[in-house]
Specification:
The chain is an alpha+beta fold. It folds into 2 domains: 108 residues, Sandwich (Immunoglobulin-like), CATH 2.60.40.380; 389 residues, Alkaline phosphatase D (PhoD) (Purple Acid Phosphatase, chain A, domain 2, 4-Layer Sandwich), CATH 3.60.21.70. The chain has 9 helices and 29 strands. The strands form 7 sheets. An 8-stranded mixed beta sheet has the order 14-15-18-21-23-22-25-24, covered by helices on one side. A hairpin with a 2-residue loop joins strand 1 and strand 2. Helix 3 packs parallel to helix 5 and helix 7 packs parallel to helix 8. The chain starts with 7 loop residues before the first helix and ends with a strand.
């Protein structure tokens, strides 16, 4: 059966019966390949680490000599993989070893939750199978709950459309010194078909032809999602970044489908069909991300929100702004398509609207009540309010951001006021393929009101192509929105250094991404003083 060309609905419905055991009941029983032999190294996708805690972190790899083939060059059997963790790159001081199975139900990916390590310590790790050794990765454990480190260093990345550029930013990121954690805000993959990365108009801009191409049509099935992740993870610069520091990863829309909301799909797909697609997407996401077993999905449901602590310096609350939100506000085009009738979009704002869902909202309120120096909200989409006017003089804003959920945002701001009153909240976001730096006003109707938090919205790795310092016509955003202090439309990544009394950030940009060899520079730097949530350019 040609899976790429199979009828969408029939294939997905058939897939539900084939994968129910693996997705719901655990791993299916298979034989173990006793003496595996490979023509080339089975560690073609490198290694990764993630979600550090005081005595360890997750380490990841995949066993597949041909990762872009249907079966990865692997039989339908499990294989045993050995791993080592050491204090030195040469593995003279090994502190932990073990063996784990790479199972076909998980696409022969491996997740090891290493424990028993010392806090705030750099380690090196690798995997073995047969006569093959994986590349070496490095990760730092988090400080203990009582420790106050001198500094915690965070990098922020996201939106890495494979077709619109090269991952040069990841090459530079892999060479950054002493990164404690890389927060990936989402859009790790894009679901679209091959050859569709270019030609998209954005204002007066148009992305060039694809720099490189996806494999296959728009992805729908578990098989297709797996191949797409493998294609992305085959990139050597992305592999280098993963090997250089632990990642804390969440998802946005393109890991499943553009602008999906809860159990709704923007083209009006039936819920039961879309949930099958969501189950496949979440399963592949879990397989390819260095996350804990707690993030393993149950069919179409996944618990992605979680907390990472870095001693007394900061708490990072990683949020899920997709799975529990209310339908988006309808556009004129969506109303004309009748998408309001199937519930995908709503015609007006309602006080009961949700971005996080009731359970996650309550969880976040509890998590913000802590004794850490800094309170970090790590999430996907723009929080800052802003206004812009079209040629007809009508105000407009992005409906897929917190701007489209004003009542939910009011509750978020109130929760920060009630539960994190020390002026120590920093919001990390992305999605817009630009840099935005802003103070979050305590009164969302008065942009000059006292700031309650700061927000740093990080640009994309590649999405939207080369870019430029600012998009034409966006100067009016800065004029109309005094709380927004900076906008930039180039590609890159952000680094943030948190100290006891202040934090500093550098907004790194590339001069081009649509071909290899781009040069990195700092577009702007900002500081925020503890207890005074207002950005200052330095």
């Amino acid at each position: 059966m040609n899976q790429f060309n199979a009828d969408r609905r029939q294939f997905l419905l058939g897939l539900a019966g084939l994968t129910s055991l693996a997705l719901v009941s655990g791993l299916s029983p298979v034989k173990t390949w006793a003496n595996p032999k490979f023509p080339i190294s089975p560690f073609q996708l490198g290694v990764a680490s993630g979600d550090p805690w005081p005595d360890g972190f997750v380490i990841w790899t995949r066993v597949a000599p041909y990762p872009l083939s249907v079966d990865g060059g692997m039989p339908n059997e499990a294989v045993n993989v050995k791993w080592e963790v050491a204090l030195d790159r040469n593995f003279k001081k090994i502190v932990q070893t073990g063996e784990v199975q790479a199972h076909p139900d998980l696409h022969h990916t491996v997740h090891v939750e290493v424990t028993g390590l010392a806090p705030q310590t750099r380690y090196y790790y690798r995997f073995f199978m047969s006569d093959y050794e994986s590349p070496t990765g490095t990760a730092k454990s988090a400080p203990s709950a009582q420790q106050m480190p001198n500094k915690v260093r965070i990098a922020v990345v996201g939106c890495q459309h494979y077709e619109t550029g090269y991952y040069t930013a990841y090459d530079y990121l892999s060479k950054e010194e002493d990164i404690d954690i890389v927060f990936h805000y989402g859009d790790y993959i894009y679901e679209g078909p091959e050859g569709k990365g270019g030609g998209r108009a954005i204002g007066n801009l148009r992305v060039s032809i694809p720099a490189r191409q996806h494999i296959g049509p728009e992805i729908q099935t578990l098989f297709q999602y797996r191949i797409r992740y493998a294609q992305y993870r085959a990139d050597p610069n992305l592999q280098a970044a993963h090997a250089s520091a632990p990642f804390a990863i969440t998802f946005d829309d393109h890991e499943v489908d553009n602008n999906w909301v809860a159990d709704l799909e923007e083209k009006g797909e039936k819920r039961e069909i879309f949930l099958l697609r969501r189950a496949a997407a979440f399963q592949a996401w879990y397989e390819y991300m260095p996350v804990r077993l707690a993030q393993k999905p149950q069919g179409p449901d996944i618990t992605a929100y979680r907390t990472l602590d870095f001693g007394q310096m900061l708490r990072m609350n990683i949020l899920d702004t997709r799975q529990y939100r209310s339908p988006i506000l309808c556009s004129k085009a969506q109303l004309e398509q009748g998408l309001d009738t199937n519930g995908y979009c709503r015609t007006d704002n309602q006080k009961a609207e949700h971005m996080l869902g009731k359970v996650q909202e309550e969880w976040l309120a509890r998590q913000m009540r802590h004794d850490k120096r800094w309170n970090i909200l790590a999430q996907q989409i723009q929080v800052m309010p802003w206004v812009r006017y079209n040629k007809s003089g009508n105000a407009y804003f992005g409906k897929d951001t917190w701007n489209g959920y004003p009542y939910a945002r009011e509750r978020l701001i109130q929760s920060i006021h009630d539960n994190a009153p020390n002026g120590n909240t920093v919001i990390l976001s992305g999605d817009l393929h630009q840099y935005f730096v802003a103070n979050i006003p305590s009164d969302l109707n008065d942009y000059k009101s006292q700031s309650i938090a700061t927000e740093f919205l990080t640009t994309s790795i590649t999405s939207t192509g080369n870019g430029q310092p600012i998009r034409p016509g966006q100067e009016d955003i800065l004029k109309l929105n005094p709380h927004i202090k900076f906008i930039n439309d180039q590609r890159g990544y952000q680094t943030l250094d948190f100290f006891k009394d202040h934090m500093r950030t550098d907004l790194n940009v590339l001069d081009f991404v649509e071909k290899p060899g781009g040069k990195l520079s700092i577009a702007a730097s900002f500081e925020v003083e503890y207890g005074k949530p207002e950005v200052k350019r330095v």
